[in-house]
Amino acid sequence: xxxxxxxxxxxxxxxxxxxxxxxxxxxxxxxxxxxxxxxxxxxxxxxxxxxxxxxxxxxxxxxxxxxxxxxxxxxxxxxxxxxxxxxxxxxxxxxxxxxxxxxxxxxxxxxxxxxxxxxxxxxxxxxxxxxxxxxxxxxxxxxxxxxxxxxxxxxxxxxxxxxxx
Length: 165
Known about the structure:
Layout (H helix, E strand, L loop, with lengths): L1 H13 L16 E4 L2 E7 L2 E2 L2 E2 L17 H23 L5 E12 L7 H16 L6 E7 L8 E9 L4
Parallel strand pairs: 5-6
Antiparallel strand pairs: 1-2, 2-7, 3-4, 5-7
Helix pairs in contact: 1-2, 1-3, 2-3
């Protein structure tokens, strides 16, 4: 329950209610379990039904129609939080989680933006904050020219569950 308490604290700090509706936008499942592996569909930075950061992230000062690095990092934290919330709902508790094995962070960005890793670090930090060493993972941070709903970030995870005793 320690992990669940950590998740609650992070959710409270980000203003995301734990009972927030997280519904798929099509014919897929938010989480698919295959044996000990859990695949979490890409999560956009949505709070209270709204995408919190839209448009490409660009270097330097804020530009109209573009997100800043800090806005993209905040969006990555929310997307990672939503992923953990889905895992908790699937398992009943994050205590059943063995570890996060892999995370991919897609960053909607301008051509001259090169700080993809710094955006992804915010999501990685959140996983470590809630799960400890079980949240340390392999990762890719990929710059893309567009994401669904014009979101700035999308995060997807693969995790594993503890073996049944």
